[in-house]
Amino acid sequence: MSFSALGLNDFILRALADAGYRLPTPVQQQAVPAALAGRDLLVSSRTGSGKTAAFMLPSLHRLAEPARREARGPRILVLTPTRELARQVADAAQKYGRHLRHAKVVSIVGGDAYPVQNRMLASRYEILVATPGRLIDQVESGRIDFSRLDVLVLDEADRMLDMGFIEDIETIVARLPRERQTLLFSATLDGRIARLAGGMLNDPQRIEIAPPPAHEAQIEQRLLVADGLTHKNQLLDRILRETDLRQAIVFTATKRDADALAGDLEQVGFAAAALHGDMKQSQRNRTLEHLRRGRLRVLVATDVAARGLDVQGISHVINFDLPKSVEDYVHRIGRTGRAGQTGVAISLVGRNDYHQVKAIERYTRQSIPVHTIPGLEPKSVLARPAPRKAGQGKGGRDWHNSRPAPRVRAR
Ligand code: ADP
Ligand code: MG
Predict the structure, then answer these.
(1) Is 155 a pocket residue for ligand 1 (Cβ < 6 Å)?
(2) CATH, domain range 214-409
(3) For position 212, what pLDDT does the model report?
(4) Distance (Å, whole) CA 214 – CA 345
(5) Do domains 3-208 and 214-409 have the same CATH topology?
(6) Smaller CB count within 10 Å for the chain: N or C?
(7) Domain boundaries, the chain
(8) What is the pLDDT of residues 86-111, one digit of tens each?
């Protein structure tokens, strides 16, 4: 099925051709015609499956029709959990809407200067991409007129709930015209999403795209067992020198660890930088730009900062620390294998990570093979821990927290 068969107008088809898109992805094949027909949608599809275009294309299509009334505010509002994602969605809107006459994009995220945002909001624009927190401020200051809004999109709704945005979202939605189209996209549709959707969507059509087995094969997952922090650093160093590694994201548990590890990697000669929520927005943007342009080879990031990142050069995702949840694991490894490319996801685990690894394997319904690197074989094995004896404390996780410097062996 081609894009033109989906019912999109020529302006959009031209932009897709410019972007080099030849065929719609499965979620686009289903969601675009349903959205064009005017239905509210509840859509789940894995990361990297092309959800942005699935909601943006039919929404942009509506912009060719005159607005329902004369007003200045947005016709399309997209809410996203993080600033990085907002930027990505705004860029996509610009790309797909480049041949449309009236498709100006404004993005409102925390960390940007208010005067600049206020000026943008006073201009004429059609598409507003925002994170809920900052948007609330602007809504309450009365700077946004929603009276001509056609479409509300909730992107990565599961993540917005995880991040505690539910009340902000409800406050914003209460200010929107009731007569509108609402498109909710999420990596998963669980009970929480259903409850959120219940109040905001009108008789939604549910579209669930099962992950094709072929996709999983596109991201090769591996476990490497580490005896302790020194060993972990040696393994990381070796992985980062693999010749098939183009760019990598290394995930750490904390912002401090991200900074420290990025610094250590830089010191031994890797083009590395950190990305986390304590950095200024301008810094985060610059780091991402360097990553996109290939000036960085290694990004050391925390979960929130890297959520939704779409950088095609990422060949490897490395979990220096395992994530706190299985959902985060899936989101992390989804940073590689973008747009049909192959990727490698390597988790560095200690013997005490057994239960977390099993939980991930259950969740993804895949077992993750244990690999070894010649010369760096571990002494420990990943095995079910013996039952803990009373008074023994939490048991051997100490290496996880201790941080002798430098983290990467200097040569
Ligand atoms: P998701 O939101 O589902 O995680 P994205 O919308 O970020 O996925 O898309 C992932 C990547 O795939 C992006 O780089 C995007 O440009 C690309 N892409 C999306 N749709 C197509 C398509 N039909 N053909 C080729 N590339 C596509
Ligand atoms: Mg997305």
Answers:
(1) no
(2) 3.40.50.300
(3) 53
(4) 16
(5) yes
(6) C
(7) 3-208, 214-409
(8) 999 999 999 999 999 999 999 999 88
